[in-house]
Amino acid sequence: MNEVKRPRKPLMFYYAIVLLALILFNALVMPFLANPNVTQVDYGEFMNMTNEKLVSEVMIEDNQILFKGKNDKLYRTGLMNDPELTQRLYASGAKFSTQIVEQMSPVLSILLSWILPMVLIIGVGNYFSKKLVEKAGGGAGSMMFGMGKSNAKVYVKSTSGIKFDDVAGEDEAKEILSEIVDFLENPKKYEAIGAKMPKGALLVGPPGTGKTLLAKAVAGEANVPFFSISGSEFVEMFVGMGAAKVRDLFRQANEKAPCIVFIDEVDAIGGKRDGRIGGNDEREQTLNQLLTEMDGFDSSKGVVILAATNRPESLDPALLRPGRFDRRVPVELPDLKGREEILKVHARKVNIQPNVDFGAVARAAAGASGAELANIVNEAALRAVRDGRKTVTQADLEESVEVIIAGYQKKNRVLSDKEKMVVAYHEIGHALVAAKQSESAPVHKITIIPRTNGALGYTMQVEENEHFLLTKEELENKIATFTGGRAAEALIFNQITTGAANDIEQATRLARAMITRYGMSDEFGMVAMEQLTNQYLGGDTTLACSDETSNRIDQVVRNLIAAQYDKAFNLLKDNAPQLHALAKYLYEHETITGDEFMDILHKMENPPALGVGEG
Ligand code: ADP
Ligand code: MG
Ligand code: ZN
User: Fold this and answer.
1) What is the pLDDT of residues 355-390, one digit of tens each?
2) Among the atoms of ligand 1, which is closest to the Cα of residue 338?
């Protein structure tokens, strides 16, 4: 395409030329304008000298009068409105003249006074901004591109050396992407057989699962340049800039092929075009340019486009058509094994005790993303430093899991004894309901030490074996467990508190999903009444049913939760002695492990038989 040979000189070079020119101008030209050998005199002096015939030559310029004395010295003076000047000069016998001002044609005058400078300014400006773009393309100094245009970086080269090894637990994604790596390494192999590589692959998944990391790893593995731009950088641009930037990105990529173009957060530009007049014109232009570029380039050259998004539902369908991002790479939250591997990858970078059980940490960190796991390791290292230790321990990691899940311990928040007691019963309420149902994840830890996220205490359940298919019974049990805290408060204190807000929210969400999406209610059966609009970001839903149905759904949700609450309440009532004993124990110890909890429960329910073992 654009095969112009570009000089690769540092930007400083051009600045130096301009500087040099200025210095030369000052040194060589200015002296003529202000020649120190010309004596400046006032107009009176000039008149005297002419009157006394001491002047030999006079030159009247349009802003001054230059004259030479009979003494051969040069003088100058300002112009005056002096109608008799000519007369007097003539009388003085001096030679005198004035500049001949050429009468320019009006066209020429406009040309010279306006257009020429403008052309110069634009020309020079263009020249330099082009240099700046190239400069930005050269790696370091890409910030320079920010001058007056936009603050987007055009691309960064892959210098990070990130490899697939640095990405853990995303085996499926790595497998798909390794084909792209292979293609970038041996395009000939694919060409020979007539196979066309997909032009683009779209990495989709929740935030922090390693999409950006994977894209970098592809470039690192294939050892090719990595052009990256983030969709959000386009948003704040001036009209037309986004499209220009896309064009520029692809032009550069074409010159550097084989290479990778990575568009992060592609949903920022690739969102659905809504067809409204006066919609987001700029974004549409940018998207259109992207589509045009993707169609226009020849993938056999070895330019592979990767993009990442956590909102795949919002992408314009045009982006997903064959020949564009036709390959979809799911980058999901890691499973138990994945979490363990990710922890290990990040533990390589810190000083960690050799006997750490990463599996246990991974189990406790259910639902954590790669970014959160990286954070957990770092948080553990920080904790070790705070304690003045040289290595990270299992306990550091486990505390960090809680920090990431629930925030830091708020040691300075003091609960009143009464509050502490209520929280203890509330938490044991959750734990006991969970323990008394067969299909519930075991209790791992219970604490009533407040956390910075606002929780006054919490019960941590850890699944022994992660599984992905949940039965209706398991879901109902979860709801019952959520309601267990409030049920305990009501049962013991005959009073309810604000402490259950989060439980209520989670129970409601789950109950709704059971009815509107999982087809688990007798009333509606297998009818989808809600659609997930934001699969990876909080799971927002839109209702797709009539108002009447919607009202009925609310009713069914209420009934479902109420039934589970009743179940929880009765469970606690039937096990009141255990509830009291455990709450008292928690109140005294503030944090207890799942083992301690089960131990107490067990001992109460299976008292050692008297007389056994006695002689
Ligand atoms: P995304 O782009 O999906 O939001 P990132 O790639 O930006 O996530 O991940 C952020 C950070 O989290 C990475 O730099 C890395 O330290 C860590 N991380 C995320 N996923 C993984 C993973 N699968 N393996 C190792 N580290 C990961
Ligand atoms: Mg990212
Ligand atoms: Zn609760």
Assistant:
1) 999 999 998 887 889 999 999 999 999 999 999 999
2) 23
Q: Which atom of ligand 1 is nearest to the CA of 334?
A: 23
> Could you give the domains of the chain?
35-98 (3.30.720.210), 153-274+281-330 (3.40.50.300), 336-405 (1.10.8.60), 417-604 (1.20.58.760)
Q: How far is the CA of 208 from the centre of ligand 1 (A)?
A: 5
DSSP string, 341-375: HHHHHHHTTS-B-TT--HHHHHHHTTT--HHHHHH
Distance separating alpha carbons of residues 326 and 323, to the nearest angstrom: 6
402 CA from centroid of ligand 1 (Å) = 20
Please tell me the pTM assigned to this model.
0.64
Q: Please, what is the Cα angle at 526 between 523 and 528, to 5 degrees?
A: 100
- Distance, in Å, from the CA atom of 40 to the CA atom of 38, rounded to the nearest integer, reads 6
168 lines ligand 1 (CB under 6 A): yes
Torsion of CA 476, 479, 485, 486, to 10 degrees: -100
CA of 376 to the centre of ligand 1 (A): 13
Amino acid, single-letter form, for residue 166: D
439 is catalytic: no
